[in-house]
Amino acid sequence: MDLTVVAYVVYLLISVALTVWVARTLSRNGRIFLADVLKGNEKLAEAVNHLLVVGFYLVNLGFVALYLKAAEAVADARGLFEALSVKIGVVLLVLGVMHLANVFVLNKIRRRGVMEREQLPPVPPQGWTTPAGQGPWTTPAGA
User: Fold this and answer.
1) Of 7, 63, 79, 131, which one's alpha carbon is 20 to 30 angstroms from that of 45?
2) Nearest partner of 101 among 16, 22, 44, 1, judged by Cα
3) How buried is residue 69: exposed, middle or buried, by Cβ count under 10 Å (0-12/13-18/19+)?
């Protein structure tokens, strides 16, 4: 069997396994984060989480498929390991960038939700005050 084909098979097995592992990890741990962002709406958090995982799979598996072709034929075992290290290294970097992008976007959404919650007063108002310059203790303008 041609070593280039072996490199393709090993690359696909490792890349797909890594993509599935990262997606499952993000899904499992992101569910709690999304529930907080979406103010406890568990059904919406689950739906958004599922959509994010599907998008993650599409982008990463699409990249893995596009990056499959080797620049040159693999001639020996050393070339096989070198080709695999470059290809898997790039896939790991892309997975890491996608993970950081997901966390960044979710954190932005979470911060916006926290800011919206902080705009509400902690207790309802108990009374009103008169605007400055209109109360009984103000002095007339010419005095």
Assistant:
1) 63
2) 22
3) exposed
The two structure tokens encoding residue 58: 């599409």
Dihedral of CA 121/124/126/132: which sign? Answer: positive
Global pTM value: 0.67
Output 48-57 pairs: Cβ under 8 A, ≥24 positions apart: 52/26, 52/27, 52/102, 53/23, 53/26, 53/27, 56/19, 56/22, 56/23, 56/26, 56/98, 56/102, 57/19, 57/23
Our CA dihedral for 108, 114, 117, 120, rounded to 10 degrees, sits at -100
The token pair at 82 is 């070198």
Q: Helix (H, G, I), strand (E, B), or coil: what is residue 77?
A: helix
Collapsing DSSP states into helix, strand and coil, what is residue 39?
coil
Write out pLDDT tens, residues 16-68.
Answer: 999 999 889 888 888 888 887 777 788 988 898 898 889 889 998 999 898 88
| C-alpha count within 13 angstroms, C-beta hemisphere, residue 24 | 6
